[in-house]
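Hey, can you fold this one?
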Amino acid sequence: MAHLFRELSLGHSKRGSHPNGATALTIPPKPTAATAADLPSPLGQLSAHLIDSELRLTAYEIFVAACRTSTGKALTFVSSDSPTQQHSTAGSPGSPALQRSLTSAAASKMKKALGLKSPGSSGSKKSPGSGFGSGPGKSKRAMTVGELMRIQMGISEAMDSRVRRALLRISAGQVGRRIESVVVPLELLQQLKSSDFTDPQEHEEWQKRTLKILEAGLLLHPYVPLDKSNSAALRLRQIIHGALDRPFETGRNNESMQVLRSAVTALASRSSDGVYDTSHWADGLPLNLRIYEMLLQAVFDTQDETSVIEEVDELMEHIKKTWSILGLNQMFHNLCFTWVLFNRFVATGQVELDLLYAADTQLAEVAKDAKATKDPEYCKILSSTLTSIMGWAEKRLLAYHDTFDSSNIDTMQAIVSLGVAAAKILVEDISNEYRRRRKNEVDVARNRIDTYIRSSLRTAFAQRMEMADSSRRASRNQPNPLPVLAILAKDVGELAIKEKQLFSPILKIWHPFASGVAVATLHACYANEIKQFISGIAELTPDAVQVLRAADKLEKDLVLIAVEDSVDSDDGGKAIIREMPPYEAEAAIANLVKVWIKTRVGRLKEWIDRNLQQEEWNPPANEDGYAPSAVEVLRTFDETLVAFFQLPIPMHPALLPDLMAGLDRCLQCYVTKAKSGCGSRNTFVPTMPALTRCTMESKFQGFGKKKEKSPTSQKRNSQVATVNGDNSFGIPQLLCRINTLQRIRSELEVLEKRIVTHLRNSESAHVEDFSNGPGKKFELSPAACVEVITQLCEAVAYKMVFHDLSHVLWDGLYVGEPSSSRIEPFLDELEKNLLIISNTVHERVRTRIITDIMRASFDGFLLVLLAGGPSRVFSRKDSQIIEDDFKSLKDLFWANGDGLPSELIDKYTTTVRGVLPLFRTDTESLIERFRRVTLESYGSSARSRLPLPPTSGQWNPTEPNTLLRVLCYRNDEAASKFLKKTYNLPKKL
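Sure. Predicted structure:
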């Protein structure tokens, strides 16, 4: 705001002229009550009841006395009747110090050194002393230092005249005596009578003031401490208290006056250093400092209270002449002047930064003094003054966000500089603790800035927290109001930007990583809130996601600022980053999404279990012959994926694999349960009966008798009873399962393409997320579908051949006479079933299932030939029948080229084609081949006795068990004898 007062630049003298030509009396402005209350003087409080005007008059008396005697010449006085009296004895002879003309032609050296601007920036240059007698019709004249000081201190011309006259009388009576040895108030009391005042009341008040000064300087604040029993002190106190109640006679021969002089002289002559040529009446602390403070305040322009007068150099030269009376030196001067400059800045509304910079510059001199002395009295006042300055500064800096903004940011730099300088002196030159530690371990400036940043931002954060809460309450009735912590995250982010742009450039002067400290503080403040929030959320909600995403964005922004700020640090910013432990907001979102996925997948699995128990697998349920439960499963999958991609989270690609894995497991469970209880090849293939041998008559055993089910048939029926007892496991139902799984396979491909589309629309996806990598596809269920479809196709084939068509295959084919029980009935039934299957099963599965039925038919055909039990016997001439029947069976599947490919048929007929020639081979050759291959298999151990080869089920013309079975069913005497002799096989079971 200083620019608003630029026309009142520091250094301008605004002293005006009285209309009558006499100099107007101007009382220097005083600080407001509020400011005075805020900043009590650190120079000390007086025990005496002396107001500022009384101290100011005493200070002026000391100033005039010290300056009039500074040359060592006798004090002279120009009578008030002189023509120049109205101009404050401007031409008084014999007083060269006070009467020196102020004619400086250049800017003040002191103002230049302190950085105070000289007048002229506003376009006008006033000469020293401008404003006195200047104006229209007035001739300019030079002003004396004495006249300037009188006006600056607000002393009336009448009082000035009395003081000068009294001092002249004193010097006349004490020629050659130094002013330091004179108790000025005592001599003034004796010299000034009631007749010297126009008003007796004025004289009485002046007299009481003078006595109070004596009391303050000799009794209350003495240079040398008093004993309580000091008789002179007791007398003086009695006289002063009596005089305060009634007028005091001050005549030279007056007894009271003589007693007073005796007591004052005795007390003033006391010394602590053995030197007795000086009177100690105004040099006790803090009286001397308070008097000197009044003198220093005279350097400020009476019309512009923020400006220092241009004549400050000469005025200050004369003010310093009071040091001998006040017991001061350059160190105390520097300290007092620092306080006066600072206090004037505060008292005048903190508008003129030059005053603050001047105080800061002066404080640099104080810092030098503090290092050069350990005087306890000085250190006490120094500590008090610096504490007051630093306290005022830190009151603003510990919450600088409340104090400063872009309009007054320049003030901040000046206040920080002053506060840090004060802190450095307090710590480095006064603190004993600092001296005990190595100085390089403590960076006072950096520590203070660190404290300011952390304190201010904690305060600002708390305020933003309240604002966010109020904002949330205000928007409660609006649709989709933002959660408090989401609002707070946005506000904190803005606060960090403001800090970086506005405050950090200033604070970096003293702390190189100011921005990093700031964002670390904000990070820690928000961490307290977000950690508590995270610990309290159990499920994914829109509010939770909003807050966590806002927290994640805030953290990234704060860390970026910290990293940028720490680029040039020795550790690359690691120390600051260590102060910022991650919020784990993304991890919290991920965990919540995983809980969401787990819940969805869990419900889906429960639904699958429940619905599969109720599923009837009824093919007519729809045109495509698949189960309704599959439709619901796929629809639920799609809805789950849509819901997942609608979640307002930033990591869909990262969490998609978790969802896919869960859905994949659910579908795998569905597929596995879909085949449960459907049986397999071994479920339906009958157990092979024990080996027997045939005789010539066994061919006609059953002729003319009622057929009974063989033990193998009964055994087979008991094995499939569990499958046959449930309508959901019939061939149509199995085909429905196959169609359902095939439908699922197809739809999974569609779902996978849809997932890629969702990913492209996801805000956080990258190009690599669209590739067909793991996590975006169903890994388990497609393979499970293929595997289960394969198993179900095999189950359908073997169930149809060995269970549903057992009456025309296992129970009918070649039972008794082969020529009368051939394969046509089986082919008829098989063709009907193949037609149904072709029309029912999905076209992509059709070839596989028909191939499996062909394989099962070939296996059944061989099983009838090689393990059909004692009801079946074959002669060599039956071989043609068998071969013709097998050709008919192959032709059924070839269907004149409309069926299975001939290459596929040939592949599965290899075993049958290898075995059938054995049925037309003569018995002796079979026996010889059997012996040879058995010996080859078992070695020399089989020479004495051929071992019974185990049943492998892998039929092969070179395999011993296959050859043995052909012999067992050979209707031939030689075969029967060989089996009887070699293995003692029975004729019947």
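Residues 22 and 299 are 22 Å apart (CA to CA). Let me know if you want another pass with a different chain boundary.
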